[in-house]
Design goal:
Elements: E1 10-11, H1 43-56, E2 61-66, H2 76-89, E3 95-102, H3 109-117, E4 121-125, H4 130-134, H5 146-158, E5 163-169, H6 177-188, E6 192-197, H7 220-237, E7 243-244, H8 245-254, E8 273-274, E9 279-281, E10 292-295, H9 301-305, H10 308-319, H11 323-326, H12 331-334, E11 344-345, E12 351-353, H13 357-366, H14 368-379, H15 387-401
Parallel strand pairs: 1-2, 1-8, 2-3, 3-4, 4-5, 5-6, 6-7
Antiparallel strand pairs: 8-9, 9-10, 11-12
Helix pairs in contact: 1-2, 7-13, 8-14
Bound molecules: iron/sulfur cluster (2 copies).
One iron/sulfur cluster binds near residues 262 and 283.
Length: about 425
Amino acid sequence: MTTPFNFHLLAKPAGAACNLRCDYCFFLKKAGLYPGSKLHMEDDVLCAYIEQLAESQVGPEVTVAWQGGEPTLMGLDFFRRSIELERELERPGLRFENTIQTNGTLLDAEWCRFFRENDFLVGISLDGPRELHDAYRKDARGRPTFNEVTRGVELLQEHGVEFNILCTVNAANGDHGLEVYRFFRDEIGAKYIQLIPVVERDNETGFQEGEALTGRSVSPRQYAGFLTSVFDEWVDRDVGEVFVLTFDWALAAWAGEPSGSCAFAPTCGNAPALEHNGDLYSCDHFVEPSHLLGNILETPMGELMSGEKQRAFGLEKLDGLPQFCLDCEVRFACHGACPKDRVAKAPDGEPGLNYLCEGYKEFFSHIDEPMKLMAELLSAGRAPSEAMDFLAEARRRAFALVGRNEPCPCGSGLKYKHCHGK
Ligand code: SF4
Ligand code: SF4
């Protein structure tokens, strides 16, 4: 038996099956890996999954994370059975937590009651207000889905289910960061928001440098603008009230703590994906034959996760960094970000640079001062939210001293008279 260690596994009980057809979805085409399959996790795989997860993790909390495709296509009985298996295995020092990522369109009162009774954390995929969400998130007949998704959110709220928002940042909403953030905060009432950039290759077969990206991909400058505009609003008034995971992960970097995100960790390897038939892959973004670790019905998950293949996959993130990243002043927070997006070349022509590099550099540089302040507060045992008062006072002083034709202290690049001095 292998030594238990913690990793974050995403299980796909319905494989790539989904009732929607979002234009940018990278997972729908994965159904091609299992031609003729029902894309349905059977009971033997479910049992093996829950048992092996409990055996291979340290605890005391073990997270069962369901994802898709659309996991609710499995029906409620599948998840009831999962909870039954968890209850059989729970003991002092071992407790299961459940999360599910869903498009929210199939939820009803029965689902919500089940989530509430079993303390599920529900992630809802929503890309912003109606027009921005509907730009790419469509159903199988190409129709918009905003109404169905927000109806699902309302049901969750009515039943007191904890939920978070997973928002992709793409070409359509990329210039509207503040509008998207305010919509989530003020109209949806979201307390937890995760932002994921869409970097979508035209070439579906591999991960070669220089591949063309689709027009739905967010540009590096757009991504920087999105993140910085949301950050400025958040750091001005929402620290400690709204949790934007990208900012939490950044704060961990400034505080010298491990990142909560594989994307901003030095190495990969702790975020495997489990397909409906028990096939375990190195990562959700590398569900392809060359990154198949094995099947958990044949080899225990713990053994697959601590094997050489997964170790090499994890280290490749670090070993593959171009010199440009090694010399970068924000590498401690970025680490070259996700290898799936390393399709660009560094200025000296070296391959392996993240396509979003320019955006990450700008964002991490932009947040340096407030992050330093919040990290200092944290290390003094104080709340990072206190930074809001310090920053407001510093701004007030800077605004009092600045001339009308000088650059605005807010960092917008505009003259004071055209910005905060208007
Ligand atoms: S490839 Fe990307 S998503 Fe996968 S583990 Fe590495 S950083 Fe995370
Ligand atoms: S900001 Fe760019 S250069 Fe710096 S670590 Fe990230 S990807 Fe590399």
